[in-house]
Amino acid sequence: MGRKILLEKINISGIESFDIYRKSGGYSAVEKALKTMTPVDVVEEVKKSGLRGRGGAGFPTGMKWGFIDRKSDKPHYLICNADESEPGTFKDRYLMEHLPHLLIEGMICSAFALEAHTAYIYIRGEFKYLIGILNNALSEAYANGFLGKNILGTTFSLDIYVHPGAGAYICGEETALIESLEGKRGNPRLKPPFPAFVGLFGCPTVVNNVETLAAISPILNMGGDFYSKLGNGKSTGTKLISACGNINKPGVYEIEMGITVEDFIYSEEYCGGIKGGKKLKAVIPGGSSVPVLPADLILKTAAGQPRLMTYESLAEGGFETGTMLGSGGFIVYDEDQCMVRNTLSFARFYHHESCGQCSPCREGTGWQERLLTRIENGEGRLKDIDLLADISKHIEGNTICPLGDAAAWPVSSAIRHFRKEFEFHIQFPEIVKNIRHGNIDKYL
Amino acid sequence: MSENYNKHKIYERNGKTYAFSDASLQRIKEIIGRYPEAKQKSALIPVLHIAQEEFGGSLNADIMDYIAGLLNVKPIEVYEVATFYTQFYLDKVGKFVIEICQTGPCLSCGGDDMIDYLKEKLGIDVGETTADGLFTFKTVECLGACGYAPVMQVNTCFHQNLTKESIDNIIDLLRTQANEPKSNDDKWVEKFCLKK
Ligand SMILES: Cc1cc2nc3c(=O)[nH]c(=O)nc-3n(C[C@H](O)[C@H](O)[C@H](O)COP(=O)(O)O)c2cc1C
Ligand code: SF4
Ligand code: FES
């Protein structure tokens, strides 16, 4: 069994309640931080841990906290990003449902480190049932003196509020989230200025993912140095992977970074292999925004090394032969899955979710969807494939926020690795229609 | 702020009256209190959610104007937001809004078959409402529950690992609710959510 840090106590019955969580050692990190450390000490500890943001970009959390403008006379804000909308990703929901106090405890320690006295949990509107769970847990924390004025008799005070979104993937992007929290459309802001200087209500703000914040208490308890030795190289610690698609055991798994992709897919401890004993066709390991890889390249790098579940190993080979760990939304496709249909579904997703501010993204995602629809419907032309690749190139790097890139990569990577399948759709639409659910490899 | 708030407790337009219940007004007041002084616009999305629940499942210009007055923002600021977010409906919807996920991971687990099955079962196309006003059928993008695919939401309630049989059960159960007062509150969710 791999080491569990976040999910260590998930099987304790009643762990979602304050009393059981506290009896199992919960909230000791708050005591440690508030009573024996300074805010800067906490930041240093997190820096030492090497923890990287779990929302997708993998930016070092301690460094991000280090940017907060401590000279500002404005209030500071901490925002927990619980918008979780990246296709393939459902780990934050799992954490909040089963371990709400782990998140709250982490948020108290983080707000202390950032000298923030107000924090918001921005949660996607569809997760209405979680709002109740979080509000219950927050009330318990208030009732037990871990939130509110003068926590544990110290001078530190903190209020945490849950704020719902209303169905917009783009609000997971941190500046769009801030706009949304201000009661506006979720249009991302141009950076700089960065939120650490000009964030919510124009004040210094840090936005962190649910899983990132949940890791803070264990890090303070075990010490940053200790945490940094877990995992593999710069991919320190453990990561939640939400595994879905055509596997025997979809679900949320905590892995110590560094296990092999093969082990993750085939071992009984994790995905338990491909459903129905079918062959593995492709994997998107970090949510829909990261490049798709065919079976051979996800299991081994182009250089023939076993691919590991780390930020670095998954990225090896760049975009030619590699991908990214992203949010840890691990999507597995078996031999019968159609890559054209899948790519079309993602193209439709990004077109629907583009906020529309930048023309390369707004128009490009529309063209991607239209061309792919045409190909999927058997009305494509061979030159559409290059046109698609060309559109992706024009979106990439030319937009205000990374949604543009996120929309381009699934398309360009699918064409790169599954070009024959696109060509086959265009040349033999009648055959494709008849094998809606079936393996087309034998025709290629 | 509070003066404005009292003035707008009831809103009349075109012979129709809109008024939040006292309980909702209390909730709205509490929500406004979560944001700094003069930043009550932040309450807009939560308040739109409450309005949609309370005024029949969708929003219209009158309701949005009412909310603009309540939060002391311009009506256009409310329209901008209501039109941006997919959870706000500007057209009338049925009592039960069925939203089934159509994104890659769900499709790979048979989501497309479930979409076809629902179309057939309800006798309507995506985007339509049944003649009896009971069901509106929509497709949506990833609901953040891909490991339990195929997935749909009915109002605020998740239904996971869908099969034709489970869809039959859900629709049957909802039909028995045809004449019950509509509610999206948590008690309703608990009673009529088939557990995962
Ligand atoms: C289009 C887009 C969508 C995003 N969605 C999410 C999300 O749902 N949840 C999340 O935590 N981060 C999301 N992010 C990343 C955030 O912008 C931000 O980097 C993150 O919340 C920072 O937290 P971390 O450093 O703890 O990872 C998204 C980014 C982009 C560009
Ligand atoms: S890249 Fe797309 S989503 Fe991002 S700001 Fe531009 S139009 Fe909006
Ligand atoms: S793809 Fe359907 S819930 Fe994520």
Write the layout of secondary structure elements.
The complex is a heterodimer of chains A (444) and B (196).
Chain A (H helix, E strand, L loop, with lengths): L17 H6 L4 H9 L2 H11 L11 H6 L9 E7 L8 H8 L1 H15 L1 E8 L4 H16 L15 E6 L9 H8 L23 E5 H5 L1 H7 L1 H6 L1 E2 L2 E2 L1 E8 L5 E6 L4 H6 L13 E5 L8 E2 H5 L11 H5 L2 H4 L7 E6 L4 H15 L5 H18 L6 H13 L7 H25 L1 H6 L10
Parallel strand pairs in A: 1-2, 1-4, 2-3, 7-11
Antiparallel strand pairs in A: 5-6, 7-8, 9-10, 9-11
Chain B lengths: L1 H6 L2 E4 L2 E4 L2 H11 L11 H11 L6 H11 L3 H10 L11 E6 L2 H5 L2 H12 L12 E6 L11 E3 L2 E3 L4 H12 L10 H7 L4
The complex binds flavin mononucleotide, iron/sulfur cluster and FE2/S2 (inorganic) cluster.
Any key phrases for this structure?
heterodimer, A: alpha/beta, 20 helices, 44% helix, globular, B: 196 residues, alpha+beta, Arc Repressor Mutant, subunit A, Glutaredoxin, two-stranded antiparallel sheet, 9 helices, 43% helix, 13% strand, binds flavin mononucleotide, binds iron/sulfur cluster
